Amino acid sequence: MLSRSTQCNEMDIKARPYCQCWVKKEPVQWKELSKCSCGEEVDVFEWKWDKPESRSQVVMSEDGKQVTFHPYYSSGTAAVRGETPMVHNNHYYWEVKMLSETYGTDIMVGVGSGKVPESQYTFTSLLGQDSESYGLSYLGPVRHDAAEVHGSAGFCRGSIIGVRLDMWAGTLEFFINRQPQGVYIYNLRRHEELYPMICSTAAQSTMRLIYAASWRASLLVDAAKVLASSVAVRPHLRLPPGLWNTFKSHFWLTLPTEVADDKDGESSTSKEIRITPTGQGQSGPRSRRRNWLMLPRTTPFMRQILL
After folding, report:
1. What pairs with residue 151 in β-bridges?
2. Where does residue 204 rank: exposed (0-12), middle (13-18), buried (19+ CB within 10 A)?
3. What is the pTM of this model?
4. What is the tens place of the pLDDT at every residue in 248-297?
5. Alpha helices, DSSP H only, in 15-86?
6. For the chain, what percentages of helix, strand and coil (3-state, to nearest 5) are there?
7. pLDDT for 53-106, tens place per residue?
8. Which of 97, 256, 288, 291 has the smallest count of CB within 10 Å of its CB?
9. Could you give the C-alpha distances from 289 to 10, 93, 157, in angstroms and in order?
10. DSSP designation for 82
């Protein structure tokens, strides 16, 4: 069994930043953390981070997007949740960029119910330590109910961590640098509502929300998923150029991976799955994406399909 230090060294080899801004390894001052804007081309923010009661452990930017944990020294674990709950029958997707070096017991991105504490005076993996939260660790595993599932290569300074929460189907999926990581957590509909959350044990660790969008579950969304998936696995199919561009810009995230059937009743389950070709390569580091409801100029034919 590997020790934690060995795991960190191996993770550092696999984890990658999103773009070339973060190749240099020298320390970065706080005021320079926002210098890189890669992946932040679209200004969609349906919610911001909620200011916690314990201000000594968290410093937040005025716009509510950037969070620095333990600005002076760390004496435990601090967490921040989104100001808006994620409710049933909606799809959600948001992205967080890691701005500082990753180290220490854990730095995590995920979701949790209102019962998850915002701080603990112990160094712990806060998200996923019980049945009320789910989190992706910078070391790689996805955690829930004190159990771990191998989820990814982890993330590091400059990585973009995406969270796709489907409160219609009750599934959760993580993305690293806009690539799906092959893990579904399902049966999340047992929670009436969930909140986006981030947490850290590392002193002066900083994360920024760079995108947050949602849309109402509907037959339109399901139809778009099927059509986008069909095009992805059948390259010979030809769509009108305008419709094809719309799928590339709006539906890169809707291309499905394998969904597991819930056979365990009310229990929450984590499952590692193999990514299908439809879940790969739909958006490179430089590609633009936006909330698909913000439709660009369309033809009457496209409006009939998309509206």
Report:
1. none
2. middle
3. 0.78
4. 666 555 444 444 444 444 445 554 433 333 333 333 443 334 333 333 33
5. none
6. 20, 30, 55
7. 767 799 999 999 999 999 999 999 999 999 999 999 999 999 999 999 999 999
8. 288
9. 32, 12, 22
10. B
